[in-house]
Design a protein that fits this description.
Elements lengths: L1 H7 L7 H8 L4 E6 L3 E7 L11 E9 L2 E8 L1
Antiparallel strand pairs: 1-2, 2-3, 3-4
């Protein structure tokens, strides 16, 4: 899911309000933000409910309220 967001570059050029609207449907555990850097912590789905859900992190970089960088990390 996050790979698609990064590879498609769909978030590039979006403003902060658009980002929140687009990511609202994702299983976001929390996000931390400053003016120009946002970090979303996303739970990865697991095949079994007994397994602990690992997380992935989506980092967004803004310039003048517009996304200029998108990265995924584990």
């Amino acid at each position: 899911m996050l790979d698609d967001l990064v590879e498609s570059e769909i978030l590039l050029g979006k403003d902060k309000k658009q980002v929140i609207e687009l990511l609202d449907t994702m299983d976001i555990k929390q996000y931390n933000y400053s003016d120009n850097n946002w970090m979303f912590i996303v739970l990865k789905p697991q095949p079994s409910p007994a397994m602990q859900s690992p997380v992935e992190i989506l980092d967004l970089t803004f310039n003048n309220d517009t996304v200029i960088g998108v990265e995924k990390r584990k």
